[in-house]
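User: Hi! I'm a student and our assignment asks us to look at how structure tokens line up with a sequence. Could you show me two examples?

Assistant: Happy to help. In each example below, the sequence comes first and the structure tokens follow. Example one:
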Amino acid sequence: MEIFKPMSFDKAIAFITLFLLAVGFIMVFSTTAVAARQKYNQPLYFLIQQIIGAAAGLVLVALILSVRRAFYQNPFLVYGLLVLSIFLLALCFVMPTLARVNRWVMFSGIRFQPSELAKISLVLFLAHYIDKKRDRLQEWPSLIFPVFIVTLCTLLIMKEPDFGTALLIFFICALMLYLGGVRLLHLGVLGLAASIFFAFFLFKASYRIERITGFMSPEKDPLGHSYQPNQSKLAVGSGGLLGVSLGESTQKLDFLPSAHTDYIYAILGEEFGLLGTLSILVVFFIFIWRGLSISSRAPTPASQLAALGLTLVIGVQALLNITVVLGLGPAKGVPLPLVSFGRSSLICNMAAIGIILNISQRKGNDRKKI
């Protein structure tokens, strides 16, 4: 028995979402105002783009919240979204290359990054598939189709290339399969195959090896592959306890590459100090806690897995980004959800949050735990 209670969505996640959007607006403007004035003669250019993406995302959340049916369990939507994601990922390779990568689909001046949509579609697909095949998941034949789909999407994203996103997606999918009831022996075999798969692509690209060696020995190449991580740590360290104050960062002035995207957390640390960085970290931990709580109370196994997977998509990505910014891991090119500049990431993350909030409105007395 499932009961839909409108407006009973989790208020903590809703507040966290609005808070992170506001922080994102502030930091996007702070990190891009000078560059936008020089390039577009409009200091608000990037901020306006971010606001447009956030507005579209909020409209999407409102629409998702109003849907009474568990649409995320509808096979037509689940498989339609999956096919669309795979098609768009493949379409990237016939699009013009930007910055030597094929990560975007472009149409009428609008760019979209399909890997962001793939995160949502894979989570919904696995939640639906695991629920339908729950009694047969311990058999190898039942694993062939989901493993093929995950491998295909991971391979397409890896070829863009986007190693960090591919690794993130694989980790979350593997965790969902484990929680869905797949045997550890089967997961061990798949994990070994995945290790060989990722190792092949890791050693195939010399720049990835250089990133790792730069992380392990930053003093050996301070102006090369260690430059960005070193500048990131310099930005965070120079912020001290309270920061140098909003807008006063020096690292954002072309010293730290990708300051408004992958390394926006470093500029936040420089301008708001340790207090600011810890506050954002705590906010993401609260987000993960509330998402896992929604998952545990969801009325159906499919809803539980969907809420869990979508929570991890946002939460793990945030922790991965923060780890890289603080110099605790090699660079992976993963943005900070809801804060970093990027409309594709912003809209897709908002859609994921909308589904989580929709699930939080569903109550049931007879719940089956994952």
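Example two works the same way, sequence first and then tokens:
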Amino acid sequence: MGLPTGVTVRRNAGLYGYERALSRAGLAPVAGVDEAGRGACAGPLVAGAAILEDGDRGKIAGLADSKLLTPKARERCYALIVERAVSWSVVVVSAADCDRLGMHVANVAALRMALARLNVRPAYVLTDGFPVDGLETPGLAIWKGDRVAGCIAAASVVAKVTRDRLMTRMHDRFPAYDFDVHKGYCTKEHQDALDRFGPCMEHRRRFVNVRNAMTSDPELLLAAAVAPEGPP
């Protein structure tokens, strides 16, 4: 689906060009939606949605595709987004539900739910990569949308920061996998831990590398996990 009739966005319009053009056409507010963790073999899938304010207050200094930002820059942008956004939301889909539904179905459902949780109903929705069906609101899927539309970039930051925080906490429960370092993605270090210990409950069994590393040895699984401890 293309932009509505009469709406055009110049190539040099900048990160907020889509929102400005849609607003001039009477299609405001505009929501962006994106996810983090789709390609990871462990941990949850997280979807974020955001509606930024019009004008200068809606321009988040340093905002870009979350994958292009340093962790410190993402945290700084995240703080500004949650403070200034007209509305924002986040949805977490467990690894078990990703396995049960399949990644694409889980992904689309999470994006749809993130939009539904916004406390301001958007007049138009911009999504990253592929369209989200089942919405009552018109929308546009933009290739690499988190690099060209501010509201999608904001949604990507919300999703990424939320997921990174969850993966860092997960490391405390399963320290053998170094989830705080690779965040569940398929790095060599992660695969080495998988081959040694087998998967934990946070690994996605639909991934071939996880299935190949499955073990029934309870001592190895116990060595990979530690029980949460309370204060001394």
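Here is something you could point out in your write-up. Strands lie at 30-36, 45-51, 87-93, 124-128, 139-142.
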